[in-house]
Amino acid sequence: MKTVLFFKGVQFKLIRIFIIYLILSFYINPLSINAQAIQQEGQNESQINVISANIRVALKEDYSKGVGWDERKELLFRILKNKNPDILCLQEVLKVQNKAFKDNFPNYFSFGYEGPEMDAYTDDAYHGIAKNPILFSKEKFELISSGTYWLSDTPHIGGSKSWNTARARHVNWVRIRDRNTQREFRILNTHFDHVSNEAKKNQALMILKESNQYPKAFPQVLAGDFNSDTTSEPIDIISNFWKDSYAEVHGDTDPGFTVHGFIGDEAKTKKGKVDFIFIKGDIQALQSDIIKDKEDGKYPSDHYFVSAKLKLIGK
Fold first, then answer.
1. Which of 93, 141, 171, 179 has the fewest CB atoms within 10 Å, i.e. the most exposed one?
2. Could you list the residue range(s) of the whole structural domain that residue 171 is in?
3. Model's pTM, two decimal places?
4. CA angle, residues 151, 152, 154, in degrees to nearest 5
């Protein structure tokens, strides 16, 4: 009798386990979970992670201060790689730095360093012109077209200057296609003058005129060191047609300064945020940050970097 009751008890427990399994299977469908995972993966693939980084031009005199290029480049590469960028917009790049980036980012297409203004010098020193290359993931994007124009009255002449600018300034741009979504968009990378306000205003106006050739909805991203903060006239000019990705995410929150002279938040400066990632057209800012990473108290550059996670919208 006890044996019969034992087996009936086991049978009852098995039935309960089976019923619970059916209930869980109904509410937790493996196919549904898999579909959600695939959807999330697709969303991540359609997002574009952009970083704008003024890496500080490689100067011989920086070695006496302990911040020479060879003393900080590995730190720079570690920090940037850790952020998993899809697109890198660099400023203040010389030949030795351009080569180092190509070597350290072999899966990225690099555009914008080479030009007649750089071919004129063979000593690899700084002659008042540093370039703004753009690097993008070859796995994620394909190049459609590209170009360079100088922020001057003669934009097709390499190294040309106008409007009392202290340095020759330029814009590199690429038009690329997302291999996943087949959407095309445009990246512009620049570095405004650091002295002449007249030059900065005209440089801003020139970018507006050039970028406004495209249809209003065409997605464009403008990154760079503008040597101007949000209270300045050049940024006001740009903001008439472009949106600051940081402000789109954080609103009126004061981001602080981005030029710190290798000493971080202890820097005493009246400048605010001068490094930007602007957007216009059918593109949305999902996230934006100021990158302040350091190791053992050492920074990779005299600027903080800025990042933006973007998404193409519309058709």
1. 179
2. 50-312
3. 0.86
4. 120
How many domains, in total, are found in the chain? Answer: 2
Question: 51-81: string of b/e by CB count within 10 Å (b at 16+)?
Answer: bbbbbbbbeeebeeeebbbeebbebbbebbe
Per-residue pLDDT of the chain (315 residues; tens, 9 = 90+): 544 444 455 455 555 655 555 544 544 454 443 434 434 444 455 799 999 999 999 999 999 999 999 999 999 999 999 999 999 999 999 999 999 999 999 999 999 999 999 998 888 889 999 999 999 999 999 999 999 999 999 999 999 999 999 999 999 999 999 999 999 999 999 999 999 999 999 999 999 999 999 999 999 999 999 999 999 999 999 999 999 999 999 999 999 999 999 999 999 887 899 999 999 999 999 999 999 999 999 999 999 999 999 999 987
CA distances from 61 to 57, 65, 120, 298, 307 (A): 11, 7, 23, 18, 29
AA identity, residue 151: L
Residues 131 and 203 in one domain: yes
> Regarding beta strands 47-54 and 87-91, do their DSSP bridges make them parallel or antiparallel, or are they unpaired?
parallel
Same domain, 107 and 141: yes
User: Is 289 found in the same domain as 149?
Assistant: yes
Report how far Cα 112 is from the mean position of its chain's Cα atoms: 16
Whole-Å CA distances, 20 to 1, 6, 24, 33, 208: 29, 21, 6, 19, 64
